[in-house]
Write a structure and sequence with these properties.
Helices cover 45% and strands 16% of the residues. By secondary structure, the chain is of the alpha/beta class.
Length: 328
């Protein structure tokens, strides 16, 4: 075995050991959850203000992420640096707020003024710590205790497993609060309007073509007329709608034309070559659902008719519309 190969294997062994230790920590955390977690969710769900998340060092980095996750999932939250809190930022923590403090040891001196502030003004204090007898735990209204777990660092010093557990516990709180509040995808989009995530959460009605842009024909329309509609509307298809009700019965696509090609094509009716019961979607569906509908089934499709509750076409969506929106 060459030195390079040995080094690669050693690196992989180290990585797998780290992940194994952190996974064991998360399993232990899951098993240790009890009524304290429910009490923490109750406190955070019941406040009128914000969740002020704090921590020092590596715990501070975790606290910043937890605050961002809470805020993006419908729980107003902000991060306050404990050292800055002692120099004026305590003014950011006001009546109606609750404090969620991360400290593995529970003895982080920089937290002292912030903890004292919560006690002075009667603000709920939730502690995330590994030491039940620590100063932070003794001061807190609710203690979320991290179970004993080996750090993944070979020296047992660098915060690794402990911060992984802190992060996961923060996510668990955020999702529990999200679920309790019935936070919807529509509300989620309000906090994520940019990028691909924002595109996925857009509604079909925001992207579809409507009105005269929708290519439609009745079942007995001759194909020579239907071809004129297909050409004019430029979607490569025409929807076939029932006389009177306007319900979508079928679709004629470029593929249907190729399969029906023959000397009598232009004299045939739309009904005779259409594909019945085409895929469709409602206007309030998410753009991500429209993309899934296009890619599902035996064959991917590039256009999707948008129908109302009675099955009548009110719009059409093309894969290019999703591409322009940044979804696909």
């Amino acid at each position: 075995m060459t030195a390079a190969v040995a080094t690669v294997r050693e690196d992989l062994d180290v990585a797998r050991s780290v992940l194994s230790l952190e996974a064991a920590g998360l399993r232990a955390l899951s098993a240790a959850l009890d009524g304290s977690f429910t009490a923490a969710v109750e406190r955070l769900a019941g406040i009128a203000g914000r969740v002020v998340v704090t921590g020092m060092g590596k715990s501070g980095h975790i606290a910043r992420k937890v605050a961002a996750t809470l805020a993006s999932t419908g729980t107003p939250a902000l991060f306050v640096h404990p050292a800055e809190a002692s120099h004026g930022d305590l003014g950011m923590v006001v009546a109606g707020d609750a404090v969620l403090a991360f400290s593995n040891s529970g003895e982080t001196s920089e937290l002292a003024d912030l903890v004292a502030h919560t006690r002075r003004f009667g603000l709920p204090l939730i502690a995330v710590t590994a030491r039940p007898a620590s100063t932070l735990a003794a001061a807190a209204d609710v203690v979320l205790l991290l179970p004993a777990a080996a750090e993944a660092c070979p020296m047992g010093l660098a915060p690794t497993t402990s911060t992984a557990m802190q992060m996961a516990l923060g996510d668990a709180l955020a999702v529990a609060l999200l679920t309790r509040r019935g936070f919807t995808a529509s509300e989620f989009r309000q906090f994520h309007p940019g990028g691909r995530l924002g595109a996925k959460l857009r509604r079909v009605r925001e992207l579809m073509h409507a009105g005269d842009a929708v290519p439609l024909a009745e079942p007995d329309t001759p194909m020579h007329q239907a071809l004129l509609v297909m050409t004019a509307k430029r979607f490569g298809c025409v929807g076939v709608v029932e006389n009177g009700s306007g319900r979508l019965l079928g679709i004629v696509t470029d593929g249907d034309l190729r399969r029906a090609m023959g000397p009598d094509l232009l004299g045939r009716t739309v009904r005779s070559i259409m594909t019945p019961s085409p895929r469709s979607i409602g206007p309030e569906a998410l753009a991500a659902q429209a993309l899934h509908a296009m890619n599902g089934g035996a064959r991917p499709i590039t256009t999707l008719f948008v129908v109302d509750g009675a099955g009548r076409p009110i719009g059409i969506l093309h894969i290019h519309d999703l591409l322009r929106a940044g979804l696909a």
